[in-house]
Design goal:
Chain lengths: ~350, ~290
């Protein structure tokens, strides 16, 4: 049975529907990310789970019990806010102890658990520091310790890493994943950063304009995007206009001078979607000219002008000679690496 | 850079601030110094002011319990006014801060509106409502049979505190409001998610964080109340004098300018000491938290 279940949840502000028909079941111990651009309803959904907002329709259940009937203060969820929302007038230890105090945990046990929680996030020895005298990363760790020390049934993370610089963010991602694996708390992360969602989650919920676009493992959502939105949002992608030619036998999928056997179930105009790292330079295929070539250490990035519009190609820096700017090339890929969708013709 | 240019650039700040400095020296420092000097001069009913250096006025203030009573009353009223504005103004600012956009700006205007009206007019309003047998409220209550005698308001310390608190309220509300603006908008949700109820959130999370705002508001209200003139003059009149009205009377009724100057100087010095002292205390107390 699902541990946390959202059943056709919707939220309306006046006439505006911010979240619509959101259904998801989360298994115990799972790490789920809500991924989408700002305004897609991911934070609203998180706030409904937290209880800061009431859903307009639908049900949220935790272990089969209706969560929306429980006051937010009694839900027992751990929340890390984007701004951390630490109590600036309390020390790190007092911040972490606050939730335990509210639960009337005895003084001795409280001190022990606070110490353990701060040690877990790597802040042993920082007990008496005030938040204002800590770095962003340290404040983030205090916020995490404060949320985890109450042994929450679900940990909710609202863009927790977005205020950190790139290097620190990467470190915290690894640490967050390790901590989550160790204690096994069911976790929901809200983020607009696709690489963060991919590196942390068991499953990603891709959202756009209040609706779920796709639910799947990071690999599934990247390799088999369910919609144009997902393929555009998760990493770079090339969309080529193509067509299915049923006059040939067997039917063929044609995009410019590239062609392959047609997939079943589609007809007429289609969009061929292919990741830049899955395109190779070959002797046959889409003809293109390289406009710019950018060296990025472990890989090369090519921007090409193809017969089906602009194209991006990424090649591993494996020591092979690469085509230069201005070279005419042929772009080819394996049919199993692309996804094909019907295209509306204007 | 040449020597001349260097010299010119060193002089520039002085030249630029000169007009303001001259105004400051001319209308504040010189009169202030003259008032302090005046407090050491002699005065007699028939001889007028004699520019000599004596401690007569200061000796009189120090030994005559009449002056001690005046000053104690002044500070008692200022402290009570400060407490009243803090008790009412802090919740007022908190409620205001939680209102939604349109109501917020409307009520902010309501709170600040009185600042646009003269203190004299506002205080006379209190006098019209509660002034003896003819005060509107008193008349109403007595005609309804609720009270047999008018509510004692005029010429009482209570009346003075109430009227002063009314005048000073915007300063407290604005000061607390500024502190509330610095609060993390998610801080109450954070406390709630950890299991805190509304009362606990206010007591443990909100109040400690807006305390610096309350205290700086208190300093403003206290110093303005202790040196207030119009409100005590109208509500207290001759019967219930405070330091400011006392100095005024010495200057303009008794014509004993040196004694009035001594009273004014003492009030100024006492206020500066209290304000600077409490400000230092507050800054030290909250240095760790609010840098």
């Amino acid at each position: 049975m699902a541990y946390l279940e959202l059943d056709r949840v919707a939220k309306q502000f006046g006439a505006q529907t911010v979240v619509d028909d959101f259904s998801l079941s989360v298994g115990k111990g799972e790490f789920i990310s809500f991924l989408g651009p700002s305004g897609c309803g991911k934070t609203t959904t998180l706030q409904m789970i937290a209880g800061f907002l009431d859903p307009t329709r639908g049900a949220i259940r935790l272990e089969g019990k209706d969560l929306t009937a429980i006051h937010p203060a009694k839900r027992g969820l751990g929340i890390v806010f984007q701004s951390y929302a630490l109590f600036p007038h309390m020390t790190a230890a007092e911040n972490v102890a606050f939730g335990l105090e509210m639960r009337n945990v005895a003084r001795g046990e409280r001190a022990e658990r606070v110490r353990a929680a701060l040690a877990m996030v790597g802040l042993a020895g920082y007990e008496d520091r005030h938040p204002r005298r800590m770095s962003g990363g340290q404040q983030q760790r205090v916020a995490l310790a404060r949320a985890l020390v109450i042994k929450p049934s679900v940990l909710l993370l609202d863009e927790p890493l977005s205020n950190l610089d790139a290097k620190l963010r990467e470190e915290m991602q690894i640490e967050l994943r390790q901590i989550q694996r160790t204690i096994g708390t069911t976790t929901i992360l809200v983020t607009h950063d696709q690489s963060e969602a991919m590196s942390l989650s068991d499953r990603i919920v891709v959202m756009s304009q209040g609706k779920i676009e796709q639910i799947g493992t990071p690999q599934e959502t990247y390799e088999r995007p369910a919609s144009a939105f997902v393929s555009q949002f998760l990493g770079k992608t090339n969309d080529f206009a193509g067509a299915i030619d049923r006059t040939a036998t067997p039917a063929r999928l044609v995009a410019g001078s590239w062609s392959a056997p047609a997939p079943a179930g589609l007809n007429g105009a289609v969009t061929v979607s292919i990741r830049p790292e899955r395109i190779g330079f070959g002797d046959a295929g889409l003809s293109a000219k390289i406009v710019t070539r950018i060296f990025q250490g472990n890989h090369w990035l090519f921007q090409c002008d193809s017969e089906c519009g602009p194209a991006i190609v990424i090649r591993q820096n494996d020591g092979q000679a690469q085509p230069a700017e201005g070279d005419a090339v042929r772009l080819a890929w394996r049919p199993e690496d692309m996804s094909v969708r019907a295209r509306a013709v204007a | 850079m040449s020597m001349a240019a260097e010299e010119r650039s060193a002089r520039a700040p002085w030249a630029l601030t000169a007009p303001a400095l001259m105004l400051f020296v001319g209308v504040l420092l010189i009169p202030l110094a003259m008032t302090v000097m005046l407090s050491f001069h002699d005065w007699g009913q028939y001889k007028g002011i004699e520019p000599v250096f004596i401690l007569k006025n200061w000796h009189e203030i120090a030994t005559d319990p009449y002056y001690a009573e005046m000053f104690w009353r002044t500070f008692r009223i200022a402290i009570l006014t400060t407490l009243l504005t803090a008790l009412l103004g802090a919740p007022e600012a908190y409620i205001l801060n939680r209102m939604s956009g349109r109501w917020k700006s409307f009520f902010l205007l309501v709170i600040l509106g009185p600042l646009l009206i003269s203190v004299v007019a506002r205080t006379l309003g209190w006098a019209l409502l509660f002034g003896g047998n003819n005060g509107l409220v008193n008349k109403l209550l007595m005609s309804l049979g609720v009270m047999r005698y008018p509510i004692p308001f005029m010429f009482t310390e209570t009346g003075m505190v109430v009227a002063l608190a009314h005048v000073m309220m915007p300063f407290m509300v604005l000061s607390v409001w500024a502190a509330l603006q610095r609060l993390d908008p998610q801080i109450e949700n954070a406390a709630m998610s950890l299991g805190a109820g509304p009362a606990t959130i206010i007591r443990r999370i909100i109040v400690p964080q807006i305390m610096p705002g309350v205290l700086s508001g208190a300093i403003i209200v206290f110093s303005l109340s202790a040196s207030a003139f119009a409100t005590p003059a109208i509500i207290g009149g001759r019967r219930l004098k405070v330091a400011a009205t006392l100095a005024y009377d010495e200057f303009l009724n008794t014509l004993n300018w040196p004694l009035g100057a001594a009273v004014a100087t003492l009030l100024l010095v006492a206020l500066v000491l209290i304000v600077v002292g409490s400000n230092a205390l507050i800054e030290r107390r909250y240095a760790e938290v609010f840098r």
